[in-house]
Amino acid sequence: MVRRSGSTSETDGGGSTLDARLDETFASLAHPRRRHLLAELPESPAESLSLATAARRLRCREVGDLGRSYVGRAAATGPTESSDRPDTYVSLRHVHVPKLADANLVDYDTAADAVARTELTDAALSLVTRAERALVDRAGPVAGGE
User: pLDDT tens, position by position, for the chain (146 residues)?
Assistant: First the structure.
């Protein structure tokens, strides 16, 4: 168990400090694609989301309504991870999902090429939502933001 005592961090049995674990968690939430992926995960940790489907959904978020109509047509024809936007899929597989998995924010099944929630996913999403609301309340909506 990790405990904070004053200004120093005590280590848990694995030798990692609370500060280091928090740094890893916040770093994993730094990129919008990773935050959006967490929001796309099924509610139940027993259900998973394929990376191909995640890539299509995230691409919709990134390109807006025009992308939604394109991706909707692609989904109807049964695309693979490379038929929509391979850069989105590749970045998920090789950058974003491993970073989230390292922070224990997703379970990544490499054999199934799918991700699922962990016990920390909801806490991370709650933190992001609260931060977004505080920023909007303080400064108003951000131009170009959601």
Answer: 222 233 334 455 555 688 998 999 999 999 999 999 999 999 998 999 999 999 999 999 888 744 444 444 444 434 444 445 679 999 999 999 999 999 999 999 999 999 999 999 999 999 999 999 999 988 866 665 54
Residue 71 Cα distances to 36, 67, 78, 103, angstroms? 17, 6, 10, 30
Q: Is the CB of residue 89 less than 8 Å from the CB of residue 37?
A: no
Single out the residue of 103, 57, 60, 51 nearest to residue 81, CA to CA.
51
Pure H helices in 1-146: 18-28, 32-40, 51-63, 65-76, 86-91, 97-102, 121-139
Q: Judge if pTM exceeds 0.85.
A: no
Q: Which positions ≥6 away from 120 have C-beta within 8 Å?
A: 25, 103, 104, 105
